[in-house]
Write a structure and sequence with these properties.
34% of the residues lie in helices and 25% in strands. The chain is α/β, with parallel strands linked by helices. The strands form four sheets. Strands 13, 16, 17, 18, 19, 20 and 21 form a seven-stranded mixed beta sheet that branches. The protein starts with a strand and ends in a 5-residue tail after the last helix. The structure holds adenosine-5'-diphosphate (ADP) and magnesium ion.
């Protein structure tokens, strides 16, 4: 089915999420929709599938003007979408999930539907068991299930919004092969992603979005620098891989054991060097957080010892750790890091409270203004922190860090941020390493872990890997370990 979008416009309050979008997608194409977080990709797809109504503009299917009123209406018209956020499935079997989609009045033959699931599953080399309970399936399997279900409902257009988040490398290969096959059968595939490599690998043509606008349409052969230019409106330099790791051991962990109500980690031994960056990889909840909190003095190990600069810190509290130069930046910026309702200036006053610096508001404002400038924060001294965007909140947190730090612990330091902010934040962190600080951080982005770490620890099911040299490993190798292979 051919899709034509004309002058599509959509605003959410002051945010112009889609600004006069014009795009035609012929049948049998794999159309890439590329753009940074917040560029407006999902909004456009939700308009095309009836989740949102455009403020203005037209949608044409095979050159006929249509009004798509709801997601169900979209499926009836032949457009199905796999969502960015994993769907919540009720506790039911695969087969019932299929039967649920059939129209009332019909009494579908269970056996027949089961055979149909197996046939489709075979055709695409998926392993879907009609009798499995959906809640026991991995994200990748649910995604396969949802593709099969939409095909079974007869969609002619398949939209996938950031479909490779949370699935294995093997499932990704199968997904891509499936999409190529579907397109060759005449289906229209729309592949939404902020990942350049994926779009380059898979798509026949690519539309690039930036700040709500469609800023370019690109055909193969692709040039990466051209995409980068379109996505960011300028050439972005990725910081070079400088390491400031020294030979001095700053922290030594000896036979550390950690426990909370559902997880137990045993016998962790590690020396963290001054200036070193250690990345913690693993599925969410595999113990990375326990590990960080132990290093922050927020969680006591159940066994073993922590030495900082040769001194035994085991059992000492958070304030003692803090006073020796340890800082902890939690993932939830607004819940644990910043204080909603307070302005930037008030935050700086609080963080500097031990000094005489702020006898008057004026000097507090001055210092805040200076920090806003140095840390490139889009906001004013009187902006309340919850009014800032995620990237600016993160910059504010960094601006609040004390000068002489020896160990900085960060959870997902760049999650949800655009590439430019992420690169900027890491350049600031590298300056800290140059000043001899060590960094330990978690991230679900393996590219980030590889790019910035000196060494990497992988967490899986209560196990912690020996430190892995970032120079001698790959995303694939880490992915295997994270998934429990190769231990
Ligand atoms: N339901 C909504 N309410 C308010 N703002 C929204 C809503 N959905 C999206 N936005 C805003 O619209 C912009 C585009 O978002 P989105 O389409 O999700 O971008 P992308 O999918 O490219 O990351 C963002 O600034 C986002 O915060
Ligand atoms: Mg999106």
């Amino acid at each position: 089915m051919k899709i034509t979008l004309q002058h599509i416009d959509k605003s959410f309050g002051k945010v112009h999420a889609n600004d006069d979008i014009n795009l035609t997608i012929p049948s049998g194409t794999i159309q890439g929709i590329l753009g940074e977080n917040g560029a407006g990709k999902s909004t456009l797809m939700k308009i095309l599938t009836g989740y949102y109504q455009a403020d203005s503009g037209e949608i044409l299917l095979d050159d006929m003007k249509v009004k798509i009123t709801s997601p169900e209406d979209a499926v009836v018209r032949g457009i199905g979408m796999l969502h960015q956020d994993p769907l919540d499935f009720p506790p039911m079997k695969v087969i019932d999930n299929f039967l649920l989609g059939t129209k009332g009045g019909l009494f579908p033959n269970r056996k027949q539907v089961e055979n149909e699931i197996l046939r489709l599953s075979n055709e695409f080399d998926f392993q879907i068991n009609p009798d499995a309970f959906v809640e026991t399936m991995t994200v990748g399997e649910r995604q396969q299930l949802e593709i099969l279900r939409l095909l079974w409902l007869g969609v002619k257009v398949l939209i996938l919004d950031e479909p490779t988040t949370g699935i294995s490398a093997n499932q990704k290969d199968k997904l891509f092969a499936t999409l190529v096959k579907l397109a060759s059968q005449g289906l229209t595939v729309i592949f939404v992603s902020h990942k350049l490599e994926e779009v380059e690998q898979l798509c026949n043509r690519v539309a690039v979005f930036r700040q709500g606008k469609l800023v370019g349409e690109v055909d193969p052969p692709y040039r990466t620098d051209q995409f980068v230019y379109l996505m960011f409106g300028k050439n972005v330099e990725v910081g070079e891989k400088a390491s400031f790791c020294t030979d001095d051991t700053y922290i030594k962990l000896k036979n550390i054991g950690l426990e909370d109500y559902r997880l137990r980690l045993k016998d962790i031994n590690l020396e963290i060097k001054s200036g070193e960056i250690i990345g913690l990889a693993g599925m969410e909840g595999s113990g990375q957080r326990l590990f960080l909190r132990m290093l922050a003095g927020l969680m006591r190990p159940v066994s073993g010892n922590i030495y900082i600069d040769g001194v035994d810190f085991t059992g000492k509290n958070y304030h003692v750790f803090q006073n020796s130069g340890v800082a902890y930046l939690p993932a939830s910026r607004l819940e644990e890091g910043l204080i909603p309702g307070m302005t930037l200036t008030e935050h700086f006053i609080l963080s500097e409270k031990h000094r005489e610096l702020f006898v008057d508001q004026r000097s507090a404002m001055d210092l805040t203004e200076e920090r806003i400038k140095t840390f490139n924060i889009k906001g004013t001294p009187v902006s309340q922190v919850e009014q800032l965007s995620g990237g600016n909140q993160q910059r504010a947190l960094l601006a609040l860090l004390r000068k002489r730090l020896r160990l900085i612990l960060m959870e997902h330091p760049t999650r949800g941020l655009d590439i430019e902010s992420a690169i900027w934040i890491w350049s600031k962190m590298k300056e800290r390493c140059k000043d001899c600080a060590s960094i330990v951080f978690t991230s679900s982005d393996l590219d980030e872990i590889l790019q910035y770490s000196d060494r990497i620890l992988v967490f899986f099911g209560g196990l912690v890997s020996p430190p892995i040299n970032a120079k001698s490993t790959t995303v694939d190798e880490l992915g295997q370990l994270i998934g429990g292979k190769g231990w």
